[in-house]
Design brief:
There is one protein chain. The protein is built from 12 helices and 7 strands. By secondary structure, the chain is an alpha/beta fold. The chain has one domain (about 1-269): P-loop containing nucleotide triphosphate hydrolases (Rossmann fold). A 7-stranded mixed β-sheet has the order 3-4-2-5-1-6-7, with helices on both faces. Helix 1 (about 15-30) packs across helix 12 and helix 5 (about 110-120) packs parallel to helix 7. The longest helix is centred in the last third of the chain and has 21 residues, at about 250-269. It is globular and about 50 Å long. The two termini are about 15 Å apart. Bound molecules: adenosine-5'-triphosphate and magnesium ion.
Length: about 270
Amino acid sequence: MRTIAIFNLKGGVSKTVTTAAMADCLAADHGKRVLLIDADQQGNLSQYFGVKAEEGADLLALLQGTNEPYYPDFVTPARPGIDIIPAGMSLMYADLDAIKDGRCNLGAIEDLRGAIAEDAASPNSEDRAKAYNYILIDCPPAFSAASTAALTAADAVIIPIRLDAFSTSGVAELTQQVVNMRRANDRLRVTGVLATQYQHTDVEDDALALLPAQSGLPVYRTKIRHSSRVAAATFAGESLLAFSPHCGASKDYRRFVQEFLGQEGKANG
Ligand SMILES: Nc1ncnc2c1ncn2[C@@H]1O[C@H](COP(=O)(O)OP(=O)(O)OP(=O)(O)O)[C@@H](O)[C@H]1O
Ligand SMILES: [Mg+2]
């Protein structure tokens, strides 16, 4: 069982679309069970999967809980093989709680991860069946109580970036972000930077060529192409891979998940 945070403090770099496409591909093409966690009060991931943050069954409730969570209480089935812990605007109360009296349980996602890992290793087949292979966390473009809880629990981080908005200062910011993330969790590993919304420009190609040396971070070989079908799929509330299987972005996300799983296999073997 692996916990991956999709993180970048920059907004609009495809964190949510990447989280959703990874989940759809891991579940539909690779038979994995995926738990999505929406750690963003914008609630875009929850909205995309058509799940509302209900009181008591969302990420806020998990972060406000003090006991070891019984995680099935917090999850809502979203698509075959995919469950979600949703979020909405009320997630800001987690930040208020944390500031006011430290009542926010920043270890809650870490505890949930532990409970799932226990189930995955259980001799009881019912426990094993409800456990997940991957937890994917869609982070907000900010450090918040929820993103701190996400980074505390994560084994690895994927950083989506848009190359057109990416200059030398972008690389410095990225490096600083990774330093700050490791303050939350020093075993955190950046598995890769993922170029998204790629439009075949020279500026993007130049930035991408320099990125590994400038940032010192691994960069995925796969680039996700810009495609108008992405917005259409999100409006329709459907999996991009099912809605438009032949668009560039769908093909690239499939390729990216292959690359990601290959890397996971190497890390585990
Ligand atoms: N490959 C793509 N091609 C075209 N449009 C895309 C692509 N990926 C994402 N988008 C669009 O870009 C916008 C931002 O994407 P997304 O919401 O995933 O970014 P984000 O990093 O999660 O943003 P935020 O920081 O606000 O959470 C959305 O309108 C989305 O439809
Ligand atoms: Mg988002």
